[in-house]
Amino acid sequence: MAEEFDVETSGLLDGLEGAARAERAELIGWLLDRGVAVDEIRGNPAPMLLASRRVIGDDGEYVSARQAADRAGVELELFERIQRAMGLPRVEDPDAEVFLRADAEAAKFTRDFLDVGIGLDELVQITRLLGDGLARAAEAMRYAALAAVIRPAATELETAKASEELVGNVAPLLGPMIQEVLLLQLRHAIETEAINATERAEGQHLPGARLVTIGFADLVGFTRLGEALPPEDLERLAQRLADLTREIAVAPVRFIKTIGDEVMLVSPEPAPLLETMLRLVEETEGDDDFPRLRAGVATGMAVSRAGDWFGSPVNLAARMTGAARPGTVLVAEAAREAIGEDDRFAWSFAGAKHLKGIKSDVKSFRARWAPADSH
Hints:
It comes from Mycolicibacterium gilvum (strain DSM 45189 / LMG 24558 / Spyr1). This protein has 14 helices and 10 strands.
């Protein structure tokens, strides 16, 4: 097809001159030979990546919400809910062909999940959480892929070929990787639920609640930094804290989320969570390029919903964090008692704290690593 197509008069080279024009003409000929339509090239701001997009399902075909729902065997309203949960925009006209066929087909699992007994609201919630997490993973993978294929002085065609080859090699690995990571998380979640079943057998009856320890850590002086640093530098600091927390937190401790300059963790066992918080504070001490941390820990009955946690220990741990001095970990009394005697930790009484939103004063304890010769 490239031989029959006059790229010079097509308008696809408008605005380009010299070497850039020659490179784009070479790329367009290669794309046409691979079956990419002229309209796809014309409407795409990054034609170098069109071939790699085709590897992962972008065939240039668009369908309407109604067509996709019919193909998936689900009601239109349900299809639209799932699409929004996956992060796709709401479209007023269900007959407008605006969805990539491959994107629309991502909802075909809906009927199977409903048939095995997963509730509709729960399925939408699961889809939304997966969409949020995988969107961040996709952005990280996009950056890694571009860093791997873009080389100084490489032509557009060379970059396109390298991108197509890389994505073609990576795409078959994604499904198994995501499946294994998800199953790993599910195994640990079910193990935690088994602990909750034991608690119920022992007479604890608060619906859905379990005894957990919650930890928060935040960057000291982050608000003041916002007045001196550009937003992108603040974002990098917050991302560095999140990355460091994920690296340090290992089972049974679980990283839950970031809230601006703050990270939240949870564990069914209090001692590993305190160890994680101490390590987190320790890792950032003495780093002139990173603000100091402070952390708070609390234990109590909490409920897990949509991957987040709710209950009195969540609020208490957040308040303890706000009351902690820079570079320290402040532990509420119930968490201190739950940890008990552990020769890894040393304690000092930090007083009874009057905390916002907490009815009674809370006895608090400052935790630190025990001296090596005390073990």
